[in-house]
From TrEMBL:
<dbReference type="Pfam" id="PF18289">
    <property type="entry name" value="HU-CCDC81_euk_2"/>
</dbReference>
<dbReference type="InterPro" id="IPR040673">
    <property type="entry name" value="CCDC81_HU_dom_2"/>
</dbReference>
<dbReference type="InterPro" id="IPR026295">
    <property type="entry name" value="CCD81"/>
</dbReference>
<protein>
    <submittedName>
        <fullName>CCD81 protein</fullName>
    </submittedName>
</protein>
<dbReference type="GO" id="GO:0005815">
    <property type="term" value="C:microtubule organizing center"/>
</dbReference>
<feature type="domain" description="CCDC81 HU">
    <location>
        <begin position="57"/>
        <end position="129"/>
    </location>
</feature>
Amino acid sequence: QGVLVPGLGTFAVVHEQINGKEEQYVVRRPVFQLDMDTSCLQELVFPTVMIPGDIEIMPLDYWWLSQTNSLPPNVVRGCVEETILLYSFRLRDRQRPAFVFENIGILSCQDNVLCMQFHCSCVAGLESQDTWVALLLT
């Protein structure tokens, strides 16, 4: 399953088959497919990530988020939307802030390359059998 964060992109978990010398691995790893207004991304390069069509994409669950911080869902929605809008304005103004997703990773821009770097703990939490393979791929 994937989660669409409107105005920013989609987080998903993909299964990837890797052929080793002696073994074949199928690992679960996180991916992020950027979906921002291209006017924000002038002069920036970002990896093209395609999420397979068989993965169900769900909208961000503002009600669930509101339960984790005791704020009403409409307030959470407003905070998320304003944060993404601020981030896109900063990118448009050629500022390159890092966008931190707690327990997931960091969306950062280095040398005009905008990419999502997942925390090792996030990858390890998704793939318990072949963690090192998943970490290397991510």
